[in-house]
């Protein structure tokens, strides 16, 4: 598994938590940051998936 997939998943989880806390305390800035972290994590996870598929093709 590519390191980007792991890091992307972690950013996605972090973003979900941050977004939830932002909603709970009424902090729109934290909520927005959480959404951005989630989006960044999804992109990084996708890149890692592409790298994994290229590795599988080589084998």
UniProtKB/TrEMBL annotation:
Location of the CsbD-like domain: 4-56
SUPFAM superfamilies according to UniProt: Hypothetical protein YjbJ (SSF69047)
Compositionally biased spans, kind Basic and acidic residues: 30-41
Taxonomy, superkingdom: Bacteria
Sequence segments annotated as region (Disordered): 1-59
Family: Belongs to the UPF0337 (CsbD) family.
Name of protein: Uncharacterized protein YjbJ (UPF0337 family)
Higher taxonomy: Bacteria, Pseudomonadati, Pseudomonadota, Alphaproteobacteria, Hyphomicrobiales
């Amino acid at each position: 598994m590519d390191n980007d997939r792991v890091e992307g998943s972690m950013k996605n989880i972090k973003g979900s938590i941050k977004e939830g806390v932002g909603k709970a305390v009424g902090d729109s800035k934290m909520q927005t940051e959480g959404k951005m972290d989630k989006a960044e994590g999804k992109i990084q996870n996708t890149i890692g998936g592409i790298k994994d598929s290229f590795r599988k093709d080589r084998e």
